[in-house]
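Aluminum-activated malate transporter: structure tokens wanted.
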Amino acid sequence: MVNNKAVSGGLEWRVRVADGSSSAVLVPESGIFQRIWQGIVGLVLGIIRKVRNFFVKAWDVGVDDPRKVMHCLKVGVALTVVSLFYYMRPLYEGVGGTAMWAVLTVVVIFEYTVGATLCKSLNRATGTFLAGALAVGVHWVASQSGERFEPIIIRSSVFILATSATFSRFIPVVKARFDYGAMIFILTFSLVAISGYRVDNLFDLAQERLSTIVIGGSMCLLISMLICPIWAGQDLHFLVARNMEKLATSLDGCVGEYFKDSEDALEIDEESRKNFQGYKCVLNSKASEEALANFARWEPGHGRFSFRHPWKQYLKIGASLRSCAYCIEALNGCINSEILAPEFIKEHLSGVSMQLTSHSSTVLKELAHITKTMRRTSTLDFAIEDMKNAVQDLHDALKSIPSQLITSQLQVDEEALLQEKKTTDPITQPTSIPLIEVLPTYYCSFING
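Answer:
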């Protein structure tokens, strides 16, 4: 009591209930300065916590893929080298004072993979060269037409070429490979053509701009290909192999989840759910595969990947893997469905379904291993043969489902009659279970087959 009074300045407020059985002490609120100080301290601590979490996540990203750290270092080296053209006077005068375009070129075209960098470099150089040549030609024609028609010709050429180049970006083939080049063409032609109306020596302006882009693009390509190169084709190769492994693991986990016993539900629930979530990564990998395949076509031969490496086949393999992933997703819907198949039907198909799943996942894992090592082994042939035999066993089991349904229903009727202890023996007619109750198990077996 003494301490509380001392804190509150010797005054204490109490509230008593009407019957006098209990009371509560009212503690005075803290002052406005104390609340402000607590708010400032909380704000500072919150900022420090967010900064710490940011650095922790950044560290995790670098540890997970050190190539990203190396890419950042390569970009820094390229910018440092190209900036010498701006800081050193002999180099600065050699490019005519447009060295800043080389710096901008490095920032824009230096991508994560060699294929992406090469694609942007060639697009930028080609677009700049074509636009500069056309701008110089249009300027010469306009200058020969007199002062009256010169601005009309320049404006008309800008309108026609800019409209045509913009429309070309909607064409699928151009958009996939030359979209960046078309955009650079529009930018360069507009700048050079419009500047030529006020600049006397337009040819030198176009030459200086092209030279700075060649310098920046060459520096990006050299550093990207010589210092720890990151190949888009190699990333695509291993992405397809990883998707095969994820699909095999998902198939094992999903079928095992469907046919598991109710007693083991609590023991393997979390582990099984983690196993069959990998198919979702396969479903979402289409954009990555198409982008990597597009960049891989630009890359030169490297390692065991020759110039004529069948990059288009990887897209077909990815499409087939996604078809399998959609089947697994449908099977996952059967697991969570409210319509459940009878237990004796699941027991009837459990053995052959699990056997087929095991052989199918073995084939997928063997294909993933062959894709990674690029070496075919005889193990795959035996695995495929075992999978074919398992498919035939499953088909035989599916054909015997109608007789199993009738037999099981007769057993259920006999047990019900014995429990009721009826004196008469009614004639039991064979009945069948509604088809909708059998569909989930049948669909699960159909997916495996």
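Residues 232-412 form one domain. Strands lie at 13-16, 23-26.

Cheers.
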